[in-house]
Amino acid sequence: MNLPGLIAALALSASTADAQKFEGLAMTPPMGWNSWNTFEINIDEELVLGVAKVMKESGMLDAGYNYIVLDDGWMTRERDANGDLVPDPEKFPSGMKHLADTLHQMGFKFGLYNCAGGKTCAGFPGSKGHEYQDARLYARLGIDYLKYDWCDTGTRDAQEAYTTMRDAIYAAGRPMIFSMCEWGTAKPWLWAKDTGHLWRTTGDIIDCYDCETRWSRGWKKIADFQATNEELYKAAGPGHWNDPDMMEVGNPGLTLEDNRAMFSLWCMMAAPLIAGNDVRNMKPEVLEILINKEAIAIDQDPLGKQGWRFYGDPRLEIWVRELSGGDWAVCVMNPSDEARECSVTWEHVGGLLPKKAQIRDIWQKKDLGTTDKLPTVTRKLAPHDVMMFRLNAIK
Ligand code: GLA
Fold it and tell me: CATH no. for residue 318?
């Protein structure tokens, strides 16, 4: 082999090794906790350690919530003399490496946030022009997950920006989940399969059902209102997920039914399950939703196919999701603001569902028998409430 050939072959094998390191992550949607929805930039070491302790003791870690991610606000307003980002010493007096080590010892993985622009959305230093330097810092700190935002990017091309940061992570040599947060602006579902492990599909979520501000929308609108997460179901798969934003489960603007319904739809959509509530002060019924193992198993199903809304009108929605082994998940929702009788007849669901199956009720946690004996389930559902089933195929 001549010299240029040898160089090309070496470069190819190096990039294949990097890509493999990257691809093994997030084979199911990432799970964890992120500080933004509740705390915005008011974050510190004590909060993170308190959250981690509760997540471990409450069973959240065992249920799969293993990434703790600090969003915007973890650093000082200026880089240091070497151009490095500086974790805020007042907020994190023991240092970020120490925090990472502590979380790792507790069994967690640890994530940080930055942005492809000159500044983050809250005005802290962004990574533009510092990508490789910042990635090396994250690797030194022991970071396992990077959420990468899109403020202050001007005319920057999203594909270039996210590919540059991905390559910087590869070069830094520490496997990290790369969470792209460019709000769906450049349609990452069309090109980012090999760039990030998850990409936001919309602007920001807020803790209401369907309210809307200039920038933010309630969870139901994020889920399925006009060209949002639901419609993109074909783009998701192992290692590359649509991200309808962090959960609002347990936050003040959601009722118990909203909490259950939001969680159910996030599971139906194979969404990353990133809790965004103050887990230190959560009600038992909120914890029970977040750690429902059978709902989580639907979200984390290894086939990795995102579900979709099979039927929808203002009074009834039926969502379906194909699972491994020929099983299916079905979620029936009352999207209206009044209690309503809602029903599902298995054979009406487009011939998709298994011919004969055991019906498992995910929220009532009981077996309802087989689909031939119980062809229809009808129940009165409170506003926004759901019933969710797993149909275990009988072969
Ligand atoms: C953007 C993102 C949010 C959050 C904030 C932080 O709005 O979409 O998820 O990270 O920035 O400033």
Answer: 2.60.40.1180
Q: Say yes or no: 168 and 272 in one domain.
A: yes
C-alpha to C-alpha distances, 388 to 128, 259, 299, nearest whole angstrom: 44, 13, 12
Q: Is 148 in the pocket of ligand 1 (CB under 6 A)?
A: no
Range of the domain at 288: 26-299
Cα gap 340→189, rounded to integer Å: 36
Atom of ligand 1 nearest to the CA of 181: 8
Q: Is 36 in the pocket of ligand 1 (CB under 6 A)?
A: yes
**For residues 360-381, b (16+ Cβ closer than 10 Å) or e, as one string?**
bbbbeeeeeeebeeeeebeeeb
**Ligand 1 centroid – CA 374 distance (Å):** 46
pLDDT range class, residue 7, cuts 50, 70, 90: very low
CA 87 to ligand 1 center in whole angstroms: 18
Block residue for tokens 């959560």: 282
135 and 160, same domain (yes or no): yes
| Spacing, Cα 117 to ligand 1 middle (Å) | 13
Say yes or no to pLDDT of 14 above 70: no
- Asked if the model's pLDDT at residue 265 lies above 90, the reply is yes
- Size of the chain in residues: 395
Domain boundary among 299, 319, 354: 299
pLDDT of 211 reads 94
204 is catalytic: yes
The rounded Å distance from CA 149 to ligand 1 centre is 7
What's the pLDDT score for residue 231?
Answer: 83
Domain shared by 239 and 340, yes or no: no
Instruction: Give, using CA atoms, the residue closest to atom 1 of ligand 1.
Output: 121
261 and 382 in a single domain? The answer is: no
Based on the fold, state whether residues 278 and 236 are members of the same structural domain. yes
| 12 band by pLDDT with thresholds 50, 70 and 90 | very low
Looking at 149, 207, 299, 327, which residue is catalytic?
149
Both structure tokens of 189: 């579902």
Best of 121, 147, 200 for a ligand 1 pocket test (most atoms within 8 Å of beta carbon): 121
Give the model confidence (pLDDT) of 105-160 as tens digits: 999 999 999 999 999 999 999 999 999 999 999 999 999 999 999 999 999 999 99
**Is 209 close to ligand 1, i.e. is its CB under 6 Å away?**
no
Q: Does the annotation count 149 as an active-site position?
A: yes
CA–CA distances in Å: residue 134 to residues 5, 121, 139, 149: 32, 17, 9, 14
pLDDT at 165 over 70: yes
